[in-house]
């Protein structure tokens, strides 16, 4: 199935660029801004304006079946969102303009025009704390008008709400409508689910109780045709929000605005090779005449794609020499797993290569402000349906010294500070949604010029759905057993993790179990006398 739908006002401009079929749009490239395992978002320039291109690598039959069951037809997510955006634009609801959408060869796309003069809701609340009350009132009216028109936004996260201020007043824009729908009339349960999603993904430090209640009252005041029970509906809204906050994904979105990535990702070689802006900068500085050359770092990632791959499983780790830099780390992997391929073909999406998971970890840690190896390039090649070859090229932190080696020669005050910094770093890793798989998985290091504690490897980090308390108890216990630290050192690490200067009463039992392998008899006797 192949088709293309273009906005009437932009059909002529896109045709002049040679974009006359869905395959032409799918061949467009740009800088990756985000995405999911089955799709990603590119930023590019089309017809003199900046746009976002949403690409679906392949449209799953389960998505088509779900859309058909809800009355949208046998279509993809991109087609559903594109058609709904046209309806939103006709109704006067704030949303990005869909320039074109279509499908070709089992893939789909959606081209959106970039909205200028607006920022994310969390960013605006953080930068303009004095305007929170006025913004809450305006947001309540905008949400009421959206629901009055019959539009339900099932993914109304705080990151999907854009805010801007103009001379005429507030300007809003709601993103990601791939799961939205239009009804003749929305029930209170459907309305409260949207409001609860926005409330659950907005941190308390950005919006207090006063701002939330003002937004709620303004929303109720705009509901002239509905029977309103303020207290009952407010209690139901609070219950829905509390239920959503139990999910790990919602808790991550509830945090303060994250640090945006410093470099973008660029797809090359038919989306089989991904390079970063840092790698392109090194290529431009290199004296290599052409990328195919084997001299220097500029051609390293390109050579990995052309390297013949064996048919057996294996992993190869190489230190790539780099001019004016420490050696870069190159990991190449060959996999041949027929049964895993069959399971992944039925499961959809397919199991990603470990290198892609590590690349996602590096990007996520960068967003959380954690200094770790920087991503340079990654890629994959399918030799046979069940045989794959993948690689990952990273740059470790420059001038980093192993933590245990640096502590051996550091002064007492510096040793205490570094142990607390290491504890804070582990806390940041947990808040990013990762857990530590063991003492050998993560390499702690120190940069002497800045005194910061960094990570030189992310091999031991894994996504975890466990609670933050459980991850802290497990990883701190592993550190206590595996690291060569004294009881006082482990206690400082423990205090740094909890960002505390002294132990509180609930922390005593856990700290005693982690820092002291065996309590002296006089300490145990003293505790019994105090307890008695």
Could you characterize the architecture of this molecule?
This protein is an alpha+beta fold and 532 residues long. Helices cover 41% and strands 22% of the residues. The protein has 20 helices and 22 strands. It has a twelve-stranded antiparallel beta sheet, with helices on both faces. A three-stranded antiparallel beta sheet has the order 7-9-10. A three-stranded antiparallel beta sheet has the order 18-20-21. The radius of gyration is 27 Å and the shape is globular. The chain starts with a strand and ends with a helix.
- Please state the structural category: alpha+beta
**Span from first to last CA?**
79 Å
Mean pLDDT figure: 79
| Major beta sheet summary | 12 strands, antiparallel
Helix content: 40-55%
How many helices? 20
Strand percent estimate: 15-25%
Instruction: Report low-confidence residues grouped into runs of 5 or more.
Output: 287-299, 515-519
What is the alpha-carbon Rg in Å? 27 Å
Let me know the number of strands: 22
Side-by-side strand order of the widest sheet:
1-5-6-4-3-2-12-13-16-17-15-14
Shape: globular
What's the topology here?
Layout: E1 3-6, H1 11-16, H2 22-26, E2 31-36, E3 39-46, E4 49-56, H3 61-69, H4 77-91, E5 98-104, E6 107-113, E7 119-120, H5 121-127, H6 132-148, E8 151-152, E9 161-165, E10 170-174, E11 181-182, H7 188-200, H8 209-221, H9 230-244, H10 248-253, E12 265-268, E13 273-276, H11 277-285, H12 300-306, E14 314-320, E15 328-336, H13 338-347, H14 354-367, E16 374-384, E17 387-395, E18 401-402, H15 403-409, H16 412-431, E19 434-436, E20 444-447, E21 452-455, E22 461-463, H17 468-482, H18 487-497, H19 508-515, H20 521-531
Antiparallel strand pairs: 1-5, 2-3, 2-12, 3-4, 4-6, 5-6, 7-9, 8-11, 9-10, 12-13, 13-16, 14-15, 15-17, 16-17, 18-20, 19-22, 20-21
Helix pairs in contact: 6-8, 7-9, 16-18, 17-19
